[in-house]
Every structure is written in C-alpha cells, then in structure tokens.
Specification:
two-stranded antiparallel sheet; two-stranded antiparallel ribbon; mainly alpha; Rhomboid-like fold; 8 helices
C-alpha cells in the first residue's frame, strides 16, 4: 500500500502534512473539522470524493479523452478528399456544358448498364444540371469534411467511391427487378455519396457521444440535410432513390466499422 502524499500546507507553521489528518502534527493547528473518509482506488487509499468533486473529475476525464481523440484525427486544414470529389463533378459538368454532350456520354446511367461496368464508377460524378450538383456538393462538403477529419483522406476517398458505385449498382439491380415494361432507368449524381457521408458521420458521432467524448450533437441540421437529400428524386429525375438509400446504407456500415476500429485502438 502506497503512503499518502503530503500535499496540505499548514496555515500556521507552513509544514506539509497529510491531507487525511484533522490537526497539524507539528503545531497542533486545527486543519479541518473531521478527517475525510478513505476509499481504495487501485493500490492506493485516497480521500472519498464528494458528489460535486466526482462530477468535476469525470468531466475532466471526458475532456482529456476528447482532446486525445481529436489528436488522433487528421488535422489537415483542407479536406483534400472532399475537394477532389467535388472538383471532379464540377469539371464533368463544365465539360458537358462546354461541349454540349449528352449526359450519358459522360457516365450517367440511362437504361440497362449491360457490360459498361465503368458507369457504376462514373455516374456518381456526372450531374445533368448545376442545382443538383450544388445540393449534393453542399452535403458532401459538410459531412465529408467531418468524416475526413476522423478517418483521413485515403479512407474518405474510398468511402466516396464505395457509396457512389455501390449505390448505382443497387439502383441498376433493384430497378431491373421491379421496373415495368418500358420503364427507363435514370441514375447519376452524388445523392448516394452525400447520404453515405452523412450516415457515416452520424454513426461516428453517435459512437463519440456514447463514449463520453462530447456532450452535444447537431441533430436538427443533420436531419434537415438528410431530408433534402432523400427527397431529391422528387425534383430531379437522375437522382435515383435506390442509389441514395443504398449509398446511405454503405456509409452507415463503413462508419460502424470505423468507429469499432477506433474504439479498439483507444483500448490498447
């Protein structure tokens, strides 16, 4: 058992004395009305904390964990992965408008994909108009930046490609199963990417809240953004609802895996 530290200074004689005594052993000055109750913490005996002190200590521990968690994040001032994803989409729109090309020539899915598998990768970055690009780019910028700070640039780029490509693959498969005779599959743009990044951020944020790393959640803003992205197919023909939902599911699963990996890394 370790001896308690002498950390209390007597106001009368200036000597350091044990924090667990009521009178100074050197001059007899009364230090406190009664000695604090002791409790065992590990191999040491320490003074029993009051409810207020316990709350302050736990708050300080949460603050230390949050600081440590933020230190693990990618502290880059610029989210390069998000910038690349938005810049590629903007470049595709610029080329399409300048050359007056049909959007299908730049990767958009119009009808069965067949053996043109590259469309699954290209379609998430092909937008038929600027408003659609603006809505998705805003969601990608907001939630993609938050995800990139937590996971880093390479993982974020992989997540963008996975949400977009698997969303388009799901749209092609589901539309092929339920589509009626004469129905034409239209799918392009990054609604699946934006929803995937939003869901990944939500899962990572929920894990941080559960572990006590923070006490606040931006619920209303995230819910509004999610509603806008989910309802995009009502005003944009190329915003496929199945691509969006599948992209969101992929993002949620990736966020769950990343949060588990981060928790295991902190536990080591």
């Amino acid at each position: 058992m370790n001896a308690p530290e002498l950390s209390v200074v007597c106001r009368s004689c200036g000597e350091e004395v044990s924090p667990y005594v009521t009178e100074c052993p050197y001059c007899g000055t009364r230090l406190r009305k009664r000695a604090p109750k002791l409790e065992r913490r590990g191999d040491e005996l320490q003074a029993q904390e009051s409810r207020r002190d316990r709350k302050l200590r736990r708050r300080a521990e949460r603050r230390d964990r949050l600081t440590q968690s933020r230190a693990e994040l990618n502290e880059s001032d610029r989210p390069y992965g998000v910038i690349v994803a938005i810049a590629v989409s903007g470049l595709v729109v610029l080329v399409q408008r300048a050359a007056d090309l049909p959007i299908s020539d730049l990767g958009a899915i119009v009808g069965p994909v067949g053996d043109e598998w590259w469309r699954y990768l290209a379609a998430p970055f092909a937008y038929p108009d600027v408003p659609y690009l603006f809505a998705c780019a805003l969601g990608i910028a907001i939630f993609g930046s938050a995800v990139e700070r937590r996971l880093g640039t390479p993982a974020t780029l992989v997540l963008v490609l996975a949400c977009g490509a698997l969303g388009m693959l799901a749209a092609d498969g589901i539309e092929g199963m339920i589509g009626g005779e004469g129905d034409l599959l239209l799918a392009s743009g990054g609604n699946g990417v934006a929803l995937g990044l939003l869901c990944a951020w939500a899962v990572l944020r929920a894990a941080e809240l559960r572990s006590g790393l923070d006490e606040h959640a931006e619920v209303i803003g995230a819910a509004v953004c999610a509603a806008v992205l989910i309802l995009l197919p009502l005003v944009e023909d190329f915003a496929n609802v199945f691509a969006g939902l599948a992209g969101g599911a992929v993002g949620a699963l990736c966020g769950l895996a990343a949060s588990y990996a981060r928790r295991e890394r902190r536990a080591e």
